[in-house]
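sry for the spam today, last one i promise. struct tokens for design, 173 residues
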């Protein structure tokens, strides 16, 4: 159980019912009832046990509006009707807000259309550039292949010419 806490002078409370365990154990209820019985024998209530407190001032927290309303109620006067002028102002404000909303939605739609058009144009340009790139890469590949083929032919010619020179030299001897 939790430690005792001083409440009113010499009375100690030693219970935390949401935390403490064991209230269902046998004899606990009877012990609690005995403690309550003993406390009621020691406590002698008087007719006015709050007499040491100052008289409460119930109007301490009243505002001017509250005082006027209490006076109206005590005089049994009817409540003022709501001004319908505010409703027409509110309707005008709602109408203006809806116009602004429509304007903002149109701007958003225009912006989205512009983005779509820009992206479609950019996509077409990218496709064109990609196609050109593929074409240039293919041409480079063909050129490289032709160069390799020509280099092979030149090497074969040099080899044939070298072989012919060797045979000519042999024949001369």
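last one done:
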């Amino acid at each position: 159980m939790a430690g005792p806490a001083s409440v009113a002078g010499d009375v100690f409370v030693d219970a935390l019912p949401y935390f403490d365990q064991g209230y269902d154990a046998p004899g606990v209820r009877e012990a609690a009832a005995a403690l309550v019985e003993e406390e009621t024998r020691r406590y002698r209530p008087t007719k006015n046990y709050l007499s040491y407190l100052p008289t409460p001032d119930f109007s301490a927290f009243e505002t001017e509006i509250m005082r006027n309303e209490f006076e109206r109620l005590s005089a049994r006067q009817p409540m003022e009707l709501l001004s319908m002028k505010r409703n027409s102002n509110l309707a005008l404000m709602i109408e203006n807000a809806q116009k602004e909303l429509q304007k903002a939605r149109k701007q958003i739609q225009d912006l989205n259309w512009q983005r779509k058009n820009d992206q479609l144009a950019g996509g077409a340009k990218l496709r064109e550039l990609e196609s050109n790139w593929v074409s240039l890469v293919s041409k480079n590949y063909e050129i490289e292949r032709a160069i390799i083929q020509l280099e092979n032919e030149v090497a074969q010619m040099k080899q044939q010419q070298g072989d012919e020179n060797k045979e000519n030299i042999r024949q001369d001897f």
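The longest strand covers residues 5-8. ok im logging off now
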